Every structure is written in C-alpha cells, then in structure tokens.
Amino acid sequence: MLTRLREGTPAAASGARAEAGTPDSAGAPLAVDAAGHSFGELRAIERIDLQAGSGEVVGLVGPSGCGKTTLLELVAGLRQPDSGTVAIGGRTEPAARLERCAYMPQRDLLLPWLSALDNAALALRIAGASRQAARERAGEHFERLGLAGFERTRPGELSGGMRQRVAFLRTLMAGRPVLLLDEPFASLDAITRGEMQSWLAALLGPDKHTVLLVTHDVEEALYLSDRVLVLSSRPAVVADRIEIPSPREPDRPAAVTSSGFAELKGRALRSLAEAAG
Amino acid sequence: MKAVRTYVAPVAVVVLLLGLWELAAQWDWIANALDIQDFLVPAPSDIATSLWEDRSLLLDDTWVTLREVLLGFLCALVAGLAFAVVLHLSDTLRRAFYPLLVATQTIPPVAIAPILVVWFGFGLGPKVLLIALVCFFPVTVNTLDGLRSVDPQLITMMRTLGANRRQILARIELPSALPFFFSGTKIAIAVAVIGAVFAEWAGASSGLGHQILIASSNLLTARMFAAITLLSVMAILLFALVSLVERRVVTWDSRGVTRT
Questions:
Q1: Which positions ≥6 away from B154 have C-beta within 8 Å?
Q2: Distance of alpha carbon B168 from alpha carbon B31, whole angstroms
C-alpha cells in the first residue's frame, strides 16, 4: 500500500506540475480590483487596484507598515479581501490563487540542514518527486543562476547574495506563474544588492512570469518594474502609478543614472513623501 | 597551549583534589574533624582497591543498573518524542495535558518509587518505569519547544510551495526541533542514573544503588564510594555518547530556522 502510494505520487504530481508550468512557464494575468482588508478594527488596505500581465513586473513601494505584505498575502490566497476581488488567470478562489503563486520572503529562510541543491529542489520534493529527479531538475538551473559548483554547499557557508539566489531558484522551481517577491534583497549590502538587481533583470528579461515586487528601495522598483505603484501609509491606497518606458536595461549603472530615470525617481520620491505624510 | 587548557588543566584539578583527599584520609584529618572512626573515611587508594577486589560483584551490579537506565531512557525517548508531536499537532490536547505533564515533574522520584515497588514488585519493571518517568519530562518539553519555535514565515513559505501539514512536520518542524530534542535527551540521560538509584533503594536485589545500601549497612565505605564512582562514570559515558550522536546528526548551524 505504502509502496504503491509512493510510486503513484511523483507521476501524478509531475502531471499536475506540467499543467501548472515549469520554471520557464507562461505567467497568468493578475487583477486586483478595489481590494480592501482589515485586521479587526485596523484597516490595513483600503481600495487597491492593480493589474499585471504575463511577463510584467509590478513594483510596490510605500512607507513601512503600510500593508505591502498583507497585499501579497491577499494575492497569494493566504488571506481573503473583505471588499473587492483578487483574481489570477480569472480565478478568485483562495486555493486557486495559492496554487498559482510562489512567495519569496525577505529572509531567505533556507533550511540549514539541506544543501543548496536540496533547498532549491524543495518544492519538487513537496510535490512528490523523488530526491534524484528533484535534484536533477533543480540542478539544471544552477549554471544560469550563477550557482554552479555550490550544489552541495550548505546555506551557512554561502554568501548573502548566493543565499538569495538559491531562495529565488527555490521560488522559481515551484513552477507557479505568479512570483511574489517580498523585499528580496533588503538584507543585502548595497553593492551586492546592485549586482542582484542586474542579475534579476537579466533573468526576468525573456521570462513570462507575472511578478509582484515589494521593496523599500525606490531605485530598485523603478529599475526592475514595468509599473510602480506608490502606496500610502495605513490604510494603504494607491497614491501614484508610474509606468516605466524601458524597464530592466542590461546596463544598470547607465540606466539608473539617465536623466529619464532621475525624473521618474524624483516623482516617485515626492509621491512617497506625500503618501507618508 | 590549547591542549593544556583543554585536557591538562581539568585533569590537573582532579589529580590535585584526589591527592589532597588521599593525604587528608591517610593522616585522619577528616575522621578527627568529624569525630568518627578512621576506617569510615576511605582514601582514594582504598576506593581503587575496592574497585579492583570487588570487581566481579560491582561489574554485575553495573550491568544491572546500566540495563535499567538504558531501557527506561529509551522508553522515555520514544514516548516523549511521540507525545511532543501529538501535543504540537493538537492545540486542545496541548492545553489539556500540559499542566499534567508539569505535575509529573513535581512529584519527587524518591516518593513515587516505593509505590511502584508495591504495585509492580521487585523486578525490572518498576525501575524502568521510574527512570522513564524522570526522563520523560525533559525530552517532551524540550522537543515541544523546538517544534513550536519554527519561524512562522517558514511555515507560510512551505504553504505557498503546496506543503500539507504532514510535510511541514516532516521537512521543517521535526528537523528544526532536533537540537532541542538533544538538549532534552542530555538532561534525561543525566537524571536517568539518579532515577535508577532511587528505584533500587525502594526495593531491589542487585544494582549499584542496591550495592550502596548494602555496603552502607555494613559500613563498607570504600565499596560505597566505588559504586558511586561507577555510577558517575556510567552517567558521564552515556552523556558523552548522546553528545557524540548529536554531533553526528545535527551537523548544521541551528540558528536561522528558529525565531530569535
């Protein structure tokens, strides 16, 4: 019975995976329509409208504690909006949203007892793949993510930037169309953060995922996103909506120092200051 | 220099203390100070002589006690781990049983040992039961703390990756509780030997604890110290064994998964 169950699971799971998509799969359009959420008396989010198409990155910036993480949890189906709707690929049920989202928290949360490879392969193992198969599939991406040679290294011996890359690969290997990145580089030093932004920009270039990027760093949001929403302090509403004409330019130093970028940054910072006040 | 601090210094302290004891016993300082007969204060050399001369007797008793300790300890490990997991999975059961769990720890083993002998007789059973009782609490409470200390964000991440309750338990909570489990286990193995002595005092026909009682009633103080030495060596060796297993199992830096 147990053997049959074990043999049955990977096949069934990999079938489900294939439907949900591989790491290079197409995204699913995300639509948040007038969504609000309260914690008891506390109104965290008022009315948020947000659209993100397949292959688009939407950046969310706002003052601390303005409900950005709550918004991500709403999108992921971990919470339900008490007003308005959240739909991914047209589906609004929480379980359907949870199935379509992969969440990457600020802290890498790598498991210290697993190697980098096994951490990256975690989602595949949860889906029922054998250790061997999961390692093979996750291992294929180590080269592309600049992690080659570190497959067997434990997280404790990796640098901050590498840990974040392993965490990102773990998120990617979940095979979900929507990626929710919650301040993914906030714990890194400024130089490593810049490198990671270039790295992510190159990675997201040809990719078709739908990405929500929460960050405190206005420059990071403007460089990586197709659209940046500036949120007000609690209860959060969209204070400004900035379209980025040419997102994720390969030459990051040139891109973030151009006059166009400076203009957008000025606008974002002014909106942010007003939103916080 | 490091070797001096690690090995030479502690050994030197022990040798120095034993030397002082030897002199104090040989010259009857202790016996005179306590106003007792000098043969009641054995020197370390007398204890060593007893260890050698009574070796077959003491070795038999050591095996008896070691068997009780290992059986009781292993029962407590299995039961403690299982109970911790059950209490962790059910909020209701945890609330219901936690006070009782603490209550078992407040009952002194020395008080409950005679009852166990009355109920279960003089055999192996009551000894194993008492040792298991004293070991159960540290194992259960520490493991439960470990299971509960997992970072909630890690659980959220696992849920978004599609993990069910069983997978979260097996892949996250149990591995991160392991260092806590071993802390409890190390406390348990140290108190297991104490439990064995109480259990044997309440009623036994062999074992090191029993030997201490017999030797005491015959005023064979050197043999009492010999038995105490063996008990202490047993506890230290078992503790070292558990530490060794811990080092082989918990090979990672356990900071990072648990809430700080």
A1: A109, B172, B257
A2: 63
ipTM of the complex: 0.75
Chain A residues with beta carbon closer than 8 angstroms to that of B256: 110, 112, 155-156
Instruction: Choose, out of B151, B160, B252, the residue to mutate when testing the contact with A (most A CBs < 10 Å).
Output: B160
- The correct CATH number of B43-249 out of 1.10.3720.10, 2.60.40.10, 3.90.1150.10, 1.10.10.60 is 1.10.3720.10
Check: CB of residue A68 under 8 Å from CB of residue A62: yes
Cα distances (angstroms) measured from residue B69 to each of B122, B193, B194: 16, 6, 9
The CATH architecture one would assign to domain A25-110+176-276 is 3-Layer(aba) Sandwich (3.40)
Does B172 sit within 8 Å of A103, measured CB to CB?
no
With an 8 Å Cβ cutoff, is A125 touching chain B? yes
Q: Closest chain B residue to A75 measured between Cα atoms?
A: B160
Q: Which residues of B touch A123 (CB under 8 A)?
A: 161-162
When comparing pLDDT for B178 and B255, which is higher? B178
Of A109, A126, A174, the CB nearest to B154: A109
C-alpha angle B193-B148-A81 in degrees, rounded to nearest 5: 170
Mean pLDDT of B232-259: 84
Q: What is the pLDDT of residues A6-31, one digit of tens each?
A: 333 333 333 333 333 344 445 678 88
Summarize the confidence of residues A223-241 as an average pLDDT: 85
Nearest to A174 among B161, B252, B255 (CB): B161
